[in-house]
Amino acid sequence: MAVAIDTGDPDNIHPRDKAAIADRLARLALAKVYQKRDIPADAPRITGARFADHQAIATLADADGLKTTDGQPPQAFELAGADGVFHPAEAAINPDATLTLTSPAVPAPTALRYASSNAPEVNTTNADGVPLAPFHSTFRIHKP
Question: pLDDT tens, 122-143?
């Protein structure tokens, strides 16, 4: 499955940038079906998260060269606390290709999500230009 979150149009089900989707699907086919290991194909994706010091640290896979497409901080991230209510979060890319998320509205985060709204504005990709896959964490901390 190719990530196409950055190619859509909220007013039209048909993506406006079909060439980007075709390129991503072709790279996936070449890498996965034809075993062309030198072709970068996978989208960055969350693999875990830890919560401490009023922040969440998201670990990612296939995130080499993580960057934003516009030079601005990463967009479309949210944090929730024990109440389960999500609030916008500020995100920063760390040198080890992790993300640090904070929100003044969530002093003790327990869950995070990315690009979960309808037609989110996203700007985070790996070095190959493949966008970060949307996610909703299942890393919630449960307290008895």
Answer: 999 999 999 999 999 865 544 4
